[in-house]
Amino acid sequence: MADHKGAYGASSSNDTSFRKTWDRSEYAAKAADRDQKIKEEGKARYQATLEGKKYHRRASTPEDTKDTEARSARLNVADKVGKTQIIVAGAGQGKRGKSAGFYCEACDLTYKDNLQFVEHLNSRQHLVATGESGEVRRAALEEVKDRFEYLKRKREEEKAREVVDLTSRIEVARDQEEREREEKRRKRNEKRRKTKDGLGVQEIKVENDGVIC
Amino acid sequence: MAHHADAKRALDERGYKGQLVRGDNPLKLFEKPVRDRIVDSYYWKEQCFGLNAATLLDRATELSFVGGTYGVAQRPTPFLCLAFKLLQIVPDKEIILFYLEQEEYKYLRVLAAFYIRLAWEKDEEVYATLEPYLTDSRKLKRRTREGWALTYVDDFIDDLLLKSRVCATTLPKINPRLFLEDEDRLEPRISALGGELEELDGEDEEEDESNGEVEEVNGPVNGREHEADGSDEEMVGG
Ligand SMILES: [Zn+2]
């Protein structure tokens, strides 16, 4: 291999252009920001002490985190209902690896019930693992209106589908009934043809056939 | 401003940095036992996590009853959980008005009304905003402590303006309408029924005279009224 390339594809290992060049004003802004944070923290710490409480520092939020969003659908727990599940030891603690129960792929943990699972999905640990900030973005009016229109449309479509469903169900039922009637007639005719006179087998009624009146 | 998905953080009195309502953390408008039951409920954990004012519509448009808490365990209704979520989000006023004004989803309308009664600080604004919906006579299902009851949008709004306790929640004090009229903070209300109502009043007076006693119709505004079915009884413990 004559052509020596760095692991990241840089043509020379001496090339440092990928490094971020620090802008003076940006640096100053960052420093000011940090000072502000220290100040705020000091204030909060003081406040907490006044109230006789212990101050807990918030973990800093990485810049590339994404907002936390609501679940788009209900958790699918229905397919677990009624199935035998092995209850793992140490309830409440997720069990490492995939096993029977509710599995979180991002954290490689399995929970024995849906409540513990959902608690895990809401936990700081899980949010960090999935690169979420835990912050929920604020929605503006326009977005609320759009969502509303979308939901309204969806409901109307569902209603329309139900109507279609109902109509087709009625049609299917009618077809079915028609077929059954046809089948009965066919059997009746066959039975009649089997007897000589073509009148079919007469039903013989016996009195006192064991039924107490 | 974004809010934190974890309500425990918002309930942490040290760390609350969100918008204030009536000078305090709006979540505290719900009593502590109710708050605890909400954040412990599965509906809250599964369905309310990470909602904002737009995605909250997904849940609110699926509401099928109002109510506070129910059953022996006093479980919170989805209605109550979503009201709590609104107090966490504190949506812009125009968004709350949008919820209220839309026609399609009556439970969304009363959810907004409930929020307005809890969180809006100007009494005259509460009356002026909610009273127009005293003409909405659509039926509502209400989950009571032990079962179900029927109510109406107008009755629910009426309760919000007259009662001190609705849906397991003690409503903040509000001045009676007449007081605000006397203070010139509110115009006298022209009833949608107009003359019809006056005629009814006339009949009532006649009856009252014949009975020889005057019945108290609405009870004291600031008095504590408990409903007959007990659905809004105090939470036990603290
Ligand atoms: Zn996870």
Automatic annotation (TrEMBL), chain A:
Biased segments, Basic residues type: 184-195
Residue ranges of every copy of the C2H2-type domain listed in the record: 104-126
InterPro entries cross-referenced by the UniProt entry: Matrin/U1-like-C_Znf_C2H2, Snu23, Znf_C2H2_jaz, Znf_C2H2_sf, Znf_C2H2_type
A GO BP annotation: mRNA splicing, via spliceosome
One GO location term (cellular component): spliceosomal complex
Keywords, sorted A to Z: Metal-binding, Nucleus, Zinc, Zinc-finger
Gene Ontology molecular function, alphabetical: nucleic acid binding; zinc ion binding
One family name in Pfam for this protein: zf-C2H2_jaz
Keyword Transmembrane in annotation: no
Keyword Iron attributed: no
Bias (Basic and acidic residues) ranges: 60-71, 174-183
Region of interest called Disordered, as start-end residue ranges on this chain: 47-71, 174-200
Protein name: U4/U6.U5 snRNP associated protein
UniProtKB/TrEMBL annotation, chain B:
One annotated Gene Ontology cellular component of this protein: spliceosomal complex
One record GO biological process: mRNA splicing, via spliceosome
Segments of skewed composition (Acidic residues): 196-216
InterPro entries xrefs: PRP38 (IPR005037)
Localization, UniProt: Nucleus
Position of the signal peptide: none
Keyword Nucleus: yes
UniProt function note: Required for pre-mRNA splicing.
Protein family per UniProt: Belongs to the PRP38 family.
Protein name: Pre-mRNA-splicing factor 38
Source species of the chain: Recurvomyces mirabilis
Organism taxonomic ancestry: Eukaryota, Fungi, Dikarya, Ascomycota, Pezizomycotina
